[in-house]
Amino acid sequence: MGPVELHSYILKIQNTYGLALNNTLDEIFSMGDFPNELIPSIITAVKSGKGIPAKSMCNILIFTKDTSLYRLAKSKDLLSGWELTRLFIEGFTIPEIEEDLCQEIYKYFKEDSQPLRNEIVKAMAEHGGKASLDMLKVINYELAPTLPEHKYDIFKNSMSSENNKDSFLKEFSLIALEEFINQVQMAIDKISKRIEVYEDAMSSVSAITNHDLSNRNDSNVIEESKYLELKSSLQWSYKGDCQDKSLEHAVLKSIAGFSNTEGGEVLIGVDDNGNVLGLEKDYSIFSGKRDGFQRHLSQIISNAFDDIFESIRLKILFPKHNDKEICQIKVAKGDKGLYLRVSENNKKIEKFFIRVGTLTKELSPSKTNEYIKNHFKDA
User: Fold this and answer.
1) How far is CA 324 from CA 174, 267, 278, 280, 378, in A?
2) Has domain 219-375 been given CATH number 3.30.950.30?
3) 3-state secondary structure of 320
4) pTM (whole model) above 0.90
5) CA-CA distance, 126 to 104, in Å (whole number)?
6) What digits encode the pLDDT tens for the residues 178-211?
7) Predicted confidence (pLDDT) per residue in 131-143, tens digit
8) How many separate helices (H) and strands (E) can be counted in the chain?
9) In which residue ranges of the chain is CATH 3.30.950.30 found?
10) Do 300 and 361 contact (CB within 8 A), yes or no?
């Protein structure tokens, strides 16, 4: 979308309401993208009550993964249980908001239809992290005591008792309730296994890298290796002494390369010679605070990769050396091929990277297929 067309859509969003606004949003979605430059206009439209449909709001959030817009939509009750579930399925579950989504979704286990509950559990089984696991355990705890021992008598009594006519159990047949509890338990097992694999992988990463920067002194020179990539910054160009958003790609590329090889670490705030520069320059871009930097890093990772990659395959730390804070990203070895989504010529494409020595190398489609087949044998 060019500057002129972008400006035209900004004006349309500002000056249309209801159905006309919805038609404008559908036009933008049909292009396969939703530019971040439109978000301020959308925020204004939401605040002024212009009537953005839940489906359109859901599409905007899937394209942008903008957490502030999500929170605004949530406060305005613009997202139903089905939209929240779709957000989860589409990977809008970065750790910062996953717990909020779980709390919202929890209400629909008791208030909405059985199909919605089943879809929510299914989505969490495939994409959920620690917050989803904790929430499903609560659901299981609430329902499991009714089964399996004496389940028929308990169910029969709950249905016949005058005091229990509004009980959650009345929405189920005995068989449906048992199937639902089994579905919840299988989801718990699946997420638990995924987290266990993650923790094992993280232990392996720590073993092969073991870069404790808090104890580093000038005699302990850090050098790039197959398992370690050094980046001076996320967005700040020391060469140009200015902000350069294109630098983010190198960080994301390294993350993908490590995941597709044997795992490793990316250190942001350390130059190629191993000198600790810190994150002060990057922080200045994000209101001078770590929170803004960390939120942005989480958002670009979520935009670049499928699923809740950060909460399952990454561990992000902020150690200090001589009062200089850096960002340490531990990347676990993946159990399947990880593609990096990038924009080229206003189109979203996927690229595949691996680690070769101290370099991150892009593979062609044919070599990617061969590599995945040989490297991820159980995929």
Assistant:
1) 60, 13, 5, 8, 42
2) yes
3) strand
4) no
5) 18
6) 788 888 899 999 988 878 777 776 666 665 555 5
7) 888 988 888 887 7
8) 16, 11
9) 219-375
10) no
